[in-house]
Amino acid sequence: MTLSPPAHAPPAPRPRRPGFTPLQLLALTLFAAYSLLPLWWVLVTIFKDNGQLFSTFGLWFASPGHLAENWQTLVTREDGIFVRWLLNSLLYAGAAAVGSMLVSAMAGYAFSAYDFRGKNVLFTLILATIMVPGTALVLPLFLMMQKLGLLNTYWAVILPSLVNPFGLYLMRLFWDAGFPRELMEAARIDGAGDWTIFRQLGLPLVRGGLVTVGLFAFVGTWNNFFLPLVVVNRSELFPLTLGLSVWNQTSSSSGQEPLYTMIVLGALVSILPLLLAFLTLGRFWQGGLASGAVKG
């Protein structure tokens, strides 16, 4: 008696993903073009001089190109202060990101790990500050910095950027979702203190939340224009946003030749660190958003 090998069932076909309708493809194409067209204009403009900017088609390159000339003007104008502005922006945004991550993580841990009287009321009041427009805080912030003697210093921009109510809200969600109470209680039974639990056990589990808060703080501080405008008036302390705006205004109002293409090149350079941050930290950011959104 011979036994025939059992017949193997054919593999189940993979489910087909629904395709896009022509109308949906058209809508996506238009949306992509609308989003990318300004960036394309910037890439084209940096190869032109001021005359070509107005005499040639705006969405295509001109000949001859002037990229090297524009770059030379950008990095040598006013003794190369553009490089100083770039370093200032990196300092402001980097310090804000690191400080905001630390403050938000510690505050979120406290709200998640402890139960105390008035906890929910205090948390609600902190969240309510998100509703306060930044312009309403300008005068109090200016007076505080003046009283502390911090006007026209790096600290005048860095210190206000460390406090992030939305970052606190996010980190509390991440602590609640990603750090089990049972693990915390077991660590306390073993004699671990709060600092040990926070640093050695908790932070690795909420890494995605830290990256999310850090990215938000970095981008927000990098793009911040109003705060440096109020608290610093020395050009060597300007970030890129404020410095390029001052160049644009002074060249237009003083009767000098406008610096349009040079300023556009500077704006393009200011985008690159943000792109680099998202490309290098994007996977942590996306994973952090997913883990913070689902509590299990």
Please describe what this structure looks like:
Residues 292-296 have low confidence and may be disordered. The chain has two domains: 30-65, no CATH class; 80-293, MetI-like fold. The chain has 14 helices and no strands. With 296 residues, it is an all-alpha fold. Helix 4 (81-113) crosses helix 8.
Please describe the topology of this protein.
Elements: H1 22-45, H2 50-55, H3 67-76, H4 81-113, H5 119-128, H6 138-148, H7 155-162, H8 165-178, H9 181-189, H10 194-205, H11 207-222, H12 226-231, H13 240-253, H14 260-293
Helix pairs in contact: 3-14, 4-7, 4-8, 4-11, 4-13, 8-11, 8-14, 11-14, 13-14
Q: Give the name of the CATH architecture of the largest domain.
A: Orthogonal Bundle
Distance between the first and last residues' Cα = 55 Å
The count of β-strands is 0
Number of helices: 14
Low-confidence stretches: 292-296
Report the C-alpha radius of gyration, rounded.
Answer: 26 Å
**CATH class bucket of the largest domain:** Mainly Alpha
CATH topology of the largest domain: MetI-like fold
Structural class call reads mainly alpha
Mass-distribution shape = globular
Order of helices and strands: HHHHHHHHHHHHHH
The tally of domains stands at: 2
Major β-sheet, in short?
none
| Proportion of residues in extended strands | under 5%
**What average pLDDT do the residues reach?**
87
Tell me the CATH superfamily of the largest domain. MetI-like
**What share of residues is helical?**
55-70%
